[in-house]
Design brief:
The complex is a heterodimer of chains A (45) and B (335). Chain A is mainly alpha-helical and 45 residues long. Chain A has one helix and one strand. In chain B, 35% of the residues lie in helices and 28% in strands. Classes of the chains: A mainly alpha (45), B alpha/beta (335). β1 of chain A pairs antiparallel with β16 of chain B.
């Protein structure tokens, strides 16, 4: 039981750390559509 | 015999040497490194066209060189560039810290008088990033803002430079003037091409901005960021292959005007950092030397970054031929 509690505690802490880390990055706007494609063609556009 | 001197054969210099030896027009390369065993090992891998030389910037350059390429840690390349200018030979350097870049840009007058091109910051960011900005600028009437970000580094010297870049003071170009900020501040989530994805990046003290402002003097704003957190960089290093410096990415956002419309172009590269940086340095060197394996013509003389010196389309085409491919983001961002 003690081990299960420890695991749950660790998972909770890891979740909080990940949430904080994600929030810490500001200003970037996640792409909502489209995607990356390789530049091709004679003009590389 | 067309010879190129490679000064520094670490992670980037070694890959650059490999690319040079495979370049049309380069018949012989001279390798020079303070670690003689490393230079010998690289020369052995190159075959008979490579030769180790004992040379230091206190000496005149070896004779009959077509170009000099310098992949030394920051602060050591200025003396090499001075010897190259004295000998009338173009020179490309990969050092990216602000002191090294400024020291090379200070040689602008001497380089112009000599009718030579001296390329500073010839790696990924600065380096390829500057070419990408020039390429994006080609589709615009005016370039207003440029923002560059990078995750990952190529080799030990680059890792040290990266770590130093997020401490102390960082200049940023804002409203056509330098503004001093704290390096490591100004966090922004940057979306690199897959598989890298998003990374928290912060202001970096790098030579990137000096090169951009030199190439685009009418810029209103410019910023340079790197993946910021120590644990992020450590995790990145630990989870990626280190055989060739590990994978990394460069992201460039160019904002400007075309007609009455405002345009935003986002370009990116994901590659093994040492291989890609070595390839950029080699293509820059061969181009400056005007050899057949180069990429277009050199557009001006003097000391500048690649954004001011090379034609972007032939340069990107040559990089693509050598396996370094650039992506553009097509799409929209959430409001």
């Amino acid at each position: 039981m003690k081990a299960v509690r420890r695991v749950l505690m660790l998972l909770t802490l890891a979740g909080i750390a990940a949430w904080v880390a994600r929030l810490r990055g500001r200003g970037g706007v996640p792409p909502s559509g489209g995607g990356w494609r390789e530049l091709r063609g004679p003009d590389y556009r | 015999v067309t010879s190129v001197l490679v000064v520094g054969v670490g992670a980037v210099g070694g890959r650059c040497a490999r690319q040079l030896i495979e370049s049309e027009g380069v018949e012989h390369i001279l390798l020079c490194d303070r670690d003689g065993e490393r230079a010998a090992s690289v020369a052995q891998a190159m075959g008979p066209a490579a030769e180790v030389v004992e040379w230091s910037p206190a000496q005149a350059l070896p004779r009959d060189l077509a170009a000099v390429t310098c992949a030394l840690p920051g602060g050591l390349d200025r003396a090499v560039a001075e010897r190259a200018l004295e000998a009338g030979v173009p020179c490309a350097s990969s050092a990216d810290d602000p002191t090294s870049v400024s020291a090379l840009l200070d040689l602008d007058d001497a380089a112009r008088e000599a009718g030579l091109a001296l390329a500073a910051g010839c790696a990924l960011a600065p380096g390829l990033a500057d070419v990408l900005v020039r390429h994006a600028a080609g589709g615009l009437d005016d370039v207003i803002e440029v923002h560059v970000a990078r995750v990952g580094g190529a080799g030990a010297a680059c890792a040290a430079s990266l770590a130093a870049s997020v401490s102390g003071d960082a200049r940023e170009w804002r409203d056509r003037a330098w503004v001093h900020e704290r390096a490591g501040s100004g966090h922004r989530l940057v979306w690199f091409p897959p598989p890298v994805g998003s990374f928290d990046c912060a202001r970096a003290n790098t030579g990137q901005l000096a090169l951009l402002v030199d190439a685009f003097p009418d810029l209103e704003r410019a910023s340079a960021r790197v993946a910021a957190r120590r644990w992020q960089r450590a995790a990145w290093r630990a989870t990626r292959s280190r055989g060739e410096g590990g994978y990394g990415a460069v992201w460039v956002e160019v904002r400007g005007r075309r007609g009455d419309a405002r345009e935003v172009t986002v370009l990116g590269v994901v590659d093994r950092m040492a291989v890609a940086a070595g390839t950029v340095l080699a293509v820059a060197t061969v181009t400056l030397a005007g050899l057949a394996g180069g990429a277009g013509r050199v557009t001006t003389t003097g000391a500048h970054g690649l954004g001011a010196l090379v034609e972007p389309v032939p340069f990107l085409a040559e990089l693509a031929r050598r396996g370094v491919r650039v992506a553009v983001f097509d799409g929209s961002a959430a409001a």
